[in-house]
Design a protein that fits this description.
heterodimer, A: alpha/beta, B: alpha/beta, 7-stranded mixed β-sheet
Chain lengths: 344, 584
């Protein structure tokens, strides 16, 4: 397959470093077939990023979160560059793969492992860390800020306040996830971050389940019930380490018309879903999805959305306290011109 | 032209003329083929000529060419035709392997050329300088162009077609131009040039592998296109091939492609599942009919030599409306817009077909290429295994009723299958980008509804091409304005040179047409529209003109019949399994 240009979209620029996720490079180069495996093609992309970072005299920080394997002989591509680079390649979340990485990338300059944070430095001169957690925080803030900016840019103001389709609210405009889905780099960064949030939520649920023996277990399937949530849900399914299958219902929101009623009949009972949505305003779409799940003898155990408007506790109060709720962006504080109020 | 009937046989694979397990062995073949001739005569088919497309002997068994000739002569004699009316071409098994590998292709073909003596090839009208193409005449008005698709290809354990240089292609075209376009041209090559043969299911004894690379003469695709463009008269060109041991019959543009299973085989268990077959192609002014003759075996695998020849009509072109007079690539004009205007006869016919609500063959399906034979089989197996194919009455529009439904959700819900489908689509697109010199910046994806949008967004990740998800069901009436076609999309599409529609299923074609009609067409608009789908039925005529689609790749081809609503029993007799809400 043709190697397409990866720069600059698949890296984010911080004042101290250039940042990327290995899973993003794997996703692009494997055609979605194996985003968890570092391949020869994805390492070539990394090599390109390394060169660019070096030109900017910044270290390249690569987050290996969710990467489970490294193809053999990838080191032959990257090692000569690491030997010649003035700047370092800093690998985050690599403890599981450290032996493989050392075999492929060569000697490490430094390995740090503090609490739940780990990092390995390859090539270049030694990079000085003030504190490892702070470094992780900087990387996370960079991603969060980037996605928040995408959401901000997705806002489409109305000429005048209009009633929303899903819930009887008057809005000054809408956040439209289509603009994020339409742009490759926005789609990649947004869905990767959502997938990571999902994995964290599921880990917490698993821990609680194990310690308290709470009922219902951990969600095993992703549910999306709208046009714009579908690509997001499928991407999360594809890149998440959990490999949860995705169920699409066409469609419950924002307008509600079921197009294939016959396909909703039957199906397995007892499934716990992760509801994936784009933007949650009043919560109507999520509530409808919950009813769909309940009518099948299933339940929604976790909701993951790109943005939300009301305080999260309000949704929990309305939709059920058992619901684990995760959102990337608080829309109410996103833009001054975005207003929503109750209709009379 | 009077009707012409050509017997197509291929792949004798004679291993041992005295072997007890050989269907074409001495003393046995007369019974086996005598029954075939009897079956052909029973169908009142008067054969005018024979085309035999190679692999007469098995794995370089040069010493058995004489027996192969005896067999072929027996068939011709029994049918009452001269062997001079029989044209043969070389298969990859027919070479003297050692001499070919030693770099002496002339010597490697010596035994085959000796075998060809007496056949139509023996009195060629024209030959290319490299002997790769031989043009001979079967009878007045019927020409046979026999091509060597093996030259320079791989042999032995990993056989594959040979390369075709530009010079060689030009030389073949020079010969093709000699044949009057209103005469019938029969082309024979052992390897097929029809990329659609990948859809011939359960390929080659289930061996699978890199199907197109190993069995499709891809280097000759350009030659095929050139011949197609040159010979515009419908039903005047037939391209015969063998090799894959499976059947595939398809009319595409102006060429009818015939791939027939093997005639000879051993009767042992390992070969017993082979399709023993012959085909008679009857070509008329306005119609091509393929009569298929299969040797249906009885008993267990080890007794596979016992059987009977059964015949049926495998394919007929045209299916309904005579496409021979309809150039569906010509623009179709809405009759309300053309009142009083002068329109071409082709357009009139196409428009009439459209407004009569008749079904007609469309470029969108006839151009449909399988993305990957392996994945296609995987999807099909999954549909069967998980019972995703439902038979019933499914109303997707007021005018047509689908008789079946395939649930796409469960089919693509697993991340691995979604990833594999994306990869196959991206690979096909990569090839289109190469052929058309297309860049990511020149193109845009339009993902239709949920699954089209999912696939388009994944393809966008891989290719860098911008994508938009579009609500098309109910023509967008049940979606918000932000999910419909906005000004931004109109602007992006207006500037794009390539528009790639991504959808889950191609059914009536009305949604594709509707989408196309949403975008204003500039004068001298040369925009190229491509289509990617998960499922398509290439035999199902569309109900809307989708001739704007210039290439179509599909993950799987599957039969999904559709009937006009007035041809389906009333709802009181057959209730709906599904009625999609219609746009107001």
């Amino acid at each position: 397959m043709k190697q397409l240009p990866l720069l600059p979209p698949l890296s984010l620029s911080h004042q101290d470093f250039v940042y990327t996720r290995m899973k993003a490079l794997n996703w692009v180069t494997s055609g979605g077939l194996n985003p968890k495996m570092v391949s020869v093609d994805s390492i070539k992309s990394l090599e390109t990023l390394l060169q660019t970072a070096s030109q900017n005299t910044k270290p390249l920080v690569v987050n290996f979160q969710g990467v489970v394997d490294v193809q053999e002989r990838v080191g032959e591509i990257i090692r000569p560059h690491l030997q010649n680079q003035k700047n370092s390649l800093i690998v985050l979340n690599c403890s599981r793969l450290l032996t493989r990485l050392k075999a492929e990338f060569g000697r490490t300059k430094r390995i740090l492992d503090e609490d739940s944070y780990d990092c390995a430095v390859f090539g270049g001169t030694q990079f000085e860390f003030k504190d490892l957690k702070g470094f992780y925080d900087n990387a996370a803030e960079l991603e969060n800020k980037t996605v928040r900016n995408y959401v901000n840019l997705s806002f489409r103001p109305f000429d005048h306040e209009k009633r929303l389709h899903s819930t009887p609210l008057l809005a000054s405009g809408v956040f439209n996830a289509r603009s994020i889905i339409s742009s490759r780099e926005q789609f990649i960064w947004t869905t990767l971050l959502m997938a990571e949030h999902l994995e964290r939520s599921l880990e917490v649920m698993e821990t609680e389940f194990a310690s308290k023996g709470s009922s219902g277990g951990v969600p095993s399937r992703i549910l999306a019930v709208s046009l714009r949530a579908s690509p997001i849900a499928a991407a999360i399914s594809l890149v998440s380490s959990r490999e949860l299958p995705v169920e699409i219902v066409d469609h419950m929101g924002p307008k509600h018309v079921i197009m294939e009623e016959h396909s909703l009949a039957g199906g397995a009972q007892g499934i716990q879903y992760v509801y994936v949505g784009d933007f949650l305003i009043g919560g109507t779409e999520l509530k409808t999805a919950q009813m769909y799940a309940i009518s099948k003898g299933c339940r929604v155990g976790c909701a993951l959305v790109l943005g939300h408007w009301l305080p999260i506790q309000d949704y929990k109060d309305n939709l059920g306290p058992h619901l684990t709720f995760t959102s990337l962006v608080d829309l109410s504080s996103c833009r001054d011109d975005a207003t929503i109020r109750w209709t009379k | 032209m009077n009707a012409v009937s050509i017997l197509h046989i291929s792949d004798f694979h004679i291993t041992d003329p005295n072997g007890i397990n050989e269907l074409l062995r001495k003393g046995k073949y007369q019974e086996y083929l005598g029954d075939l001739v009897h079956a052909i005569k029973k169908e009142k088919l008067a054969i005018d000529g024979i085309v035999a497309t190679g692999d007469f002997v098995n794995w370089d068994a040069q010493q058995y060419f004489s027996h192969a000739k005896e067999v072929l002569k027996f068939v011709a004699d029994s049918l009452g035709i001269k062997i001079a009316n029989t044209a043969v071409c070389l298969g990859n098994h027919d070479l003297d392997f050692k001499k070919e590998l030693d770099g002496d292709p002339i010597a490697a073909r010596m035994n085959f050329n000796e075998f060809s003596k007496g056949f139509a090839n023996d009195a060629p009208m024209y030959k290319s300088d490299d002997d790769r193409a031989v043009l001979c005449r079967i009878k007045v008005g019927v020409w046979a162009l026999m091509l060597d698709s093996v030259l320079g290809g791989r042999l032995k354990n990993d056989p594959a077609p040979g390369p075709l240089t530009a010079k060689s292609g030009d030389a073949i075209m020079d010969i093709v131009r000699i044949v009057p376009v209103n005469d019938l041209l029969l082309i024979g090559s052992h390897y097929s040039v029809d990329p659609n043969i990948a859809s011939a299911s359960d390929f080659a004894d289930g061996k699978g592998g890199n199907f197109l690379g190993a069995h499709s003469w891809t280097d000759a695709y350009q030659l095929r296109e050139r011949i197609d463009r040159h010979r515009k008269t419908p039903y005047k060109t037939c391209w015969f091939s063998g090799d894959i041991h499976r059947e595939h019959f398809r009319y595409h543009r102006n060429i009818y492609y015939v791939t027939t299973g093997r005639l000879g085989t051993k009767t042992g268990a390992s070969d017993s599942k082979c399709l023993r077959q012959a085909a008679v192609v009857r070509i008329d002014e306005n119609e091509i009919v393929v009569h298929r003759f299969r040797y249906d075996t009885e008993g267990h695998n080890s007794q596979a030599e016992y059987g009977d020849w059964k015949s049926d009509v495998a394919n007929r072109e045209p299916n309904t409306v005579p496409t021979s007079v309809v150039d569906l690539r010509a623009p179709v004009v809405d009759p309300s817009e053309t009142a009083g205007a002068q329109v071409s006869s082709n357009t009139q016919v196409a428009t009439e077909a459209l407004t009569r609500n008749d079904s007609f063959t469309s470029v969108a399906t006839s151009k449909c290429e399988i993305l990957s034979a392996e994945s296609s089989q995987d999807i099909r197996t999954n549909i069967v295994k998980n019972k995703l194919y439902t038979w019933g009455r499914f109303e997707t529009s007021p005018n047509e009723v689908l008789l079946s439904w395939v649930s796409i959700g469960p089919l693509l819900s697993a991340p691995k299958r979604l990833g594999a489908t994306t990869r196959d689509m991206a690979t096909w697109l990569d090839s289109q980008m190469g052929q058309r010199k297309m860049t990511a910046e020149q193109a845009v994806f339009l993902g239709i509804d949920c699954w089209g949008s999912i696939l388009a967004s994944q393809l966008s990740v891989v290719t860098g091409i911008r994508n938009f998800c579009i609500a098309a069901r109910g023509r967008g009436d049940y979606h918000t304005n932000q999910e419909a076609i906005t000004d931004e999309i109109l602007q992006v599409v207006a500037l794009a040179k390539y528009v790639i529609i991504v959808t889950d299923v191609v059914a009536t074609g009305r949604t594709l047409r509707w989408l196309y009609d949403q975008f204003p067409k500039a004068e001298n608009d040369e925009k190229v529209w491509l289509l990617l789908s998960v499922l398509c039925d290439p035999k199902q005529p569309l109900f809307a003109d989708c001739s704007f689609i210039q290439a179509h790749g599909t993950a799987c081809q599957i039969t999904r019949p559709i009937l006009p609503a007035d041809r389906v029993p009333g709802l009181d007799l057959v209730p709906n399994n599904l009625a999609i809400p219609q746009s107001s």
